[in-house]
Specification:
The chain is 62% helix and 0% strand. It starts with a helix and ends with a helix. The chain is elongated, with a radius of gyration of 26 Å. The chain has nine helices and no strands. By secondary structure, the chain is mainly α.
Length: 160
């Protein structure tokens, strides 16, 4: 009789939000569950005997002794991939808008009439268009700050 398959955790055990093993794995990784997550786990596992570590965790949560790290949560890797792709899209769009502005400025004899139909500078327009295309939940300024932060140091310096 082989007992190994029974002791091996399933994918459900490891990654289901209401799994005790998933909760233990997250705790080991330094993530403290919210009150709602603890309630869901407790509700889903009410028919079985709960381990002592989980009862201690729920008790500490009820007493307000669980402290989470302050600040923003870590963003998933997919966000960084989208941001990198959006940054490339922004750079090509910015070049295109700057070329359009240069050709339209050379054709106009007077600058009194405004900036050829648009009050936004090309970098702002390119950022707004990119944010809409990639459905990023941030302002154009935040987008430009983020892509400036993510560039390698050699690309940040401009030799003029």
């Amino acid at each position: 009789m082989d007992n190994q398959p029974a002791s091996k955790p399933t994918l459900y055990d490891l990654f289901e939000a209401t799994s005790l093993q998933n909760c233990q794995r997250l705790l080991d990784a330094g993530e403290i569950p919210t009150s709602g997550q603890l309630a869901d786990i407790l509700e889903a596992n009410a028919d079985q005997q709960l381990p002592a570590w989980f009862i201690d965790l729920v008790t500490k949560n009820l007493r307000g002794e669980l402290k989470r790290k302050a600040g923003r949560r870590k963003e998933p890797a997919l966000f960084f991939y989208r941001l990198a792709a959006a940054a490339e899209d922004y750079q090509s769009l910015l070049r295109e808008l700057q070329e359009q502005e240069l050709t339209s400025q050379s054709k106009s004899l007077s600058r009194i009439g405004g900036k050829n139909g648009s009050s936004e500078p090309p970098h702002e327009r390119a950022a707004n268009i990119t944010i809409q295309r990639w459905r990023l939940a941030m302002s154009w300024r935040a987008f430009l700050n983020r892509i400036a932060q993510n560039r390698p140091p050699s690309a940040r310096r401009r030799s003029g």
